[in-house]
């Protein structure tokens, strides 16, 4: 499991199984809320159930945050979701952008694309589409998106700098992103770093928090903001698949931290005025300020 293509194959195979079975991941997956012991752990995923636009059938429990909550999506915006899975964040984003906007989900797992398209057809949305492709080589033209969201996906891509460069390319000048991801402070034990299931489960592919933020800065993004951060604890029965009991204790006592972060940043440039958002604001002002 050394080459980029081998890593991508591991991820694609795992998420194909999830898409085809419809089950939320368990056992070695760290994007799960349940372990083999059936004891509930809040490992990474956040609860979407009270989020407007949420579609239960599209939630496979694969996220590590709520990026759409922080994404500042306006009516009429064009939004791209990186690693869109069964469409969960796309449908939440669609609620925010309204029928006037557009949402594009990009995913490299054919079974996920099929599942997402089935979901959108059931919902009858004609302004949400799903495109098959790698997020480090997006099937999207330059300067298309007002907003990019992503939920626990960049850690699964070997070349994270390339993805960040693609995000800069497809965003409009003045556009922005809000992405949730897993980062590290300190080094993982080598057994975790080389474990294929831990890679597909969001941990082994994570990089240092400082490097993650530096990559975003080096790409040319501005106004980089850490919108949310929470510590992640991996249950012992998941760690036991890679580490001995002694190694688990040493790891838990060590200085390594695993974190879910939600990061915001803007592409330089002057944002084109959004006529739909402007009209909505004018109507709101007219309503609140009109004489009685």
Describe the structure.
The longest helix is centred in the N-terminal third of the chain and has 18 residues, at 4-21. It is built from eleven helices and eight strands. Strands 1, 2, 3, 4, 5, 6, 7 and 8 form an eight-stranded mixed β-sheet that branches. β2, α4 (110-123) and β3 (128-132) form a beta-alpha-beta unit. It has one domain: Vaccinia Virus protein VP39 (Rossmann fold, 3-Layer(aba) Sandwich). The chain is an alpha/beta fold and 292 residues long. It has helices at residues 4-21, 67-70, 88-97, 110-123, 160-170, 190-193, 196-200, 209-219, 236-239, 245-253, 275-289; strands at residues 78-82, 102-107, 128-132, 145-151, 171-185, 207-208, 222-232, 257-266. The model is unreliable at 25-42 and 284-292 (pLDDT under 50). α5 (160-170) runs parallel beside α8. The radius of gyration is 19 Å and the shape is globular.
Write the layout of secondary structure elements.
Elements: H1 4-21, H2 67-70, E1 78-82, H3 88-97, E2 102-107, H4 110-123, E3 128-132, E4 145-151, H5 160-170, E5 171-185, H6 190-193, H7 196-200, E6 207-208, H8 209-219, E7 222-232, H9 236-239, H10 245-253, E8 257-266, H11 275-289
Parallel strand pairs: 1-2, 1-4, 2-3, 4-5, 5-6
Antiparallel strand pairs: 5-8, 7-8
Short description:
By secondary structure, the chain is α/β, with parallel strands linked by helices.
